[in-house]
Amino acid sequence: MKITVESVYSIQYGNSFIEAYGDVYLNGELKAWIGFMGKVELEAEPGENTIEISYEDAKNGSKKIKFYATEDVNIYVRFKLSTISAKLIVNTLAVGKDLKIIEESEEYK
After folding, report:
1. Closest listed residue to residue 68, CA positions, set 41, 96, 42
2. In DSSP terms, which residues pair with 63 in a beta bridge?
3. 3-state secondary structure of 1
4. What are φ and ψ of residue 33, in 5° steps?
5. Separation CA 52–CA 92 (nearest Å)
6. Average pLDDT of the chain, as a whole number
7. How many CB atoms lie under 10 A from the CB of residue 91?
8. Is 109:60 a contact under the CB 8 Å cutoff?
9. Residue range 36-60: mean pLDDT, rounded
10. Rounded CA separation 2/108 (Å)
């Protein structure tokens, strides 16, 4: 089964560009880095899997998606900056024919 993780947006805040990137983990193992308009294709066994995108900014954090699927899955990642707190926010959209999201969480370190 193929899992595609794709970054679809980057950030500009005022006149300065904020670098947004993340480490991509599949089932706890670092598999790739993703940044501006990046795309990563991973192979996984059908069934239950976990994708985690760990990112760095003023507040280090991570976004984790635990899901069940037997066919290909696409995960779109959007890095954006909160205009209120100037904090990096990561939005994800997971798409697949038989995809079932088990758990989705975001943590700050």
Report:
1. 96
2. 53, 106
3. coil
4. -110, 150
5. 11
6. 84
7. 13
8. yes
9. 85
10. 28
**Whole-model pTM?**
0.83
Q: What angle (nearest 5°) sits at the alpha carbon of residue 57, between those of residues 80 and 26?
A: 80
87-108 residue pLDDT tens: 667 788 999 999 999 999 888 6
HSE-up of residue 18 (Cα within 13 Å, Cβ side): 19
> What's the one-letter identity of residue 101?
I
Q: Which of 84, 89, 75, 64 is nearest to 11 (CA)?
A: 89
Whether the CB-CB separation of 66 and 48 falls below 8 Å is answered with yes
Give the single-character DSSP code of 83: T
Residue found by looking up tokens 């100037």 in the block: 86
Tokens of 79: 């890095």
Number of helices (H) and strands (E) in the chain: give both, helices first. Answer: 0, 11
The answer to whether 73 and 94 are in contact (CB under 8 A) is yes
pLDDT of residue 1: 95
Amino acid identity of residue 14, one-letter, is G
| Residues contacting 16, CB < 8 A, separation 6+ | none
